[in-house]
Amino acid sequence: MASNPNREIRMMQLTLRTAEGQEPDYIVEGYASTFDEYTLFSVDGVDYNERIDPHAFDEADMTDVVFRVDHEGPVYARSSAGTVKINTDEHGLHQVTDLSRTARSRAIYDEIAAGNYPQMSFAFTVAEDHVERGTHTRVIDRIAKVYDVSPVCFPANPNTFLTARSLIDGAIEQERAERLEAERREAQRERIRNLLEVSQ
Questions:
Q1: Could you give the CA distance from residue 131 to residue 138 in angstroms, rounded to a whole number?
Q2: CA distances from residue 88 to 22, 99, 125, 188 in whole angstroms, order as listed
């Protein structure tokens, strides 16, 4: 399958539902996304943040979300098979995945339980977003599609969020250009004041 250059990935926490000392039920759950603001990266000492609007998932295509490892390779569960369940609440996008159906998916659960995949991330595309320049925050207004939820061996690096960076980088460049223009105008006004003082 060809990769989608607009696809983005965000980190999430992963929870095993089985209590310690009990037989595993092979269920993993957690929030694929929350509506809290988080920092994507810093430039010139300024934090650039991101926030997902609480209604961003209202029209998102979540009809066939798959559970894979590191966003590639075999599928271990999927929503169209009833083994991945996703819903939104006041906190965010919640997922519950059943890995009990096959020996291969149970083996992935065991890898997660062993701590080899300490976090998860989810892959999605954005339908609409904007930047709040005053707070340097990208707001994701609408998500087009959620593709997968994946346990990952390493947390996602915010600096690889290319689509997010391209949007915010535009805002950064605009702010720099406006600052330079304001400095140029102030320098010009200062030269005029100096000329007026000399001529008096």
A1: 4
A2: 29, 21, 17, 55
What is the Cα–Cα distance from 191 to 200, expressed in whole angstroms?
15
Which DSSP string do the residues of 88-148 spell out, in sequence order?
Answer: E-SSEEEEEEE--SSHHHHHHHHHHHTTSS-EEEEEEEEEEEEEETTTTEEEEEEEEEEEE
d(CA 136, CA 133): 5
Both tokens of residue 186?
Answer: 């102030």
At residue 40, what are phi and psi to the nearest 5 degrees?
A: -85, -50
User: For residues 56 and 39, what is the distance between their CA atoms, to the nearest angstrom?
Assistant: 19
Q: Tally the C-alpha atoms within 13 A of residue 132's C-alpha that lie toward its C-beta.
A: 14
In this prediction the pTM is 0.71
CA distance 142 to 57: 6
What is Dmax (Cα atoms) for the chain? 92
Return per-residue pLDDT of the chain as tens, 200 residues. Answer: 445 667 887 766 666 665 455 667 888 887 888 888 888 778 778 888 889 999 999 999 999 999 999 888 999 999 999 999 999 999 888 888 999 999 999 999 999 888 888 787 888 999 999 989 888 898 999 999 999 988 888 765 443 333 344 455 566 666 667 777 777 888 777 777 777 676 66
Residue located via tokens 């993993």: 28
Residue ranges covered by each domain of the chain: 8-199
